[in-house]
Amino acid sequence: MHVRSLCMPRLSYLRVHAPRATSSFLRSQFQSRRSFSRAIRVVCRTSFILLIFPQRPPGLVHYMNRSHRFGASYALSALALTASFALAPAPAFADGDDIALTNLIALVSQRLALAEPVARWKWAHHQAITDTPRENALLADVEKRAAAANVDPAFARAFFQDQIDASKDVQNALFATWRSTQPPQGPAPDLAASTRPQLDKLTQLLMAGLARVQPLRTAEDCPSRVAQSLASWKSLTRYDSAHSSALTRALGHVCETGGVGATG
Length: 264
What we know:
Blueprint: H1 3-17, H2 20-29, H3 33-52, H4 60-68, H5 72-87, H6 99-113, H7 115-124, H8 132-148, H9 153-180, H10 191-213, H11 222-237, H12 244-250
Helix pairs in contact: 1-3, 2-5, 3-5, 4-5, 6-9, 6-10, 6-11, 7-9, 8-9, 9-12
């Protein structure tokens, strides 16, 4: 699925239905068709990210300033257009579009991002990275949730085992860095009050995501589709290369044959 195919139907919608206040504001900020078109290119990228992530990703305005050399007010104007853009109704997608895969990859990325606060807590409390009883409890709970969500329990278990292993890859890398350089600064995150509730919420969302991608698991081109969606996601979000291999590992059992295919 191309980002343009996601963006343009919403742009057409906004031309007709944008609130008057929003329209007036945008007209005051984008004085020419050329500047507006330039902003749309940024909007197409950032609105896609906002549609995937419920909260605005950190540094989004900075990204627009740095990558597109906008002034601060210009970048904020583009972001305002992006917010309106993201609220427009989603267009219908054909069966060949991989929005479900992109959604799943986005959720996996969010979960993987929580590996750092988990690692910080474990470091501060001198805990081992591997917590076998908790991991087994999560996998048992996942199997029960899968049955209720009409997801193959074996698929769900393998997928969440990949999430656990990928998270531990990131945590181990962080521990190695902290041992060789300096430990993390500041207080450790509150694992019980903050991080675990986020992980629990992501478990629910990921289960729903598995239900949506389950029909394509047996497709012959599943590995290549996962690889293409992953490559597009990494490019779209300027994904942290330090976590790239962990993200790939986390998607290892999306397809029934296992692994992520090659692109190109």
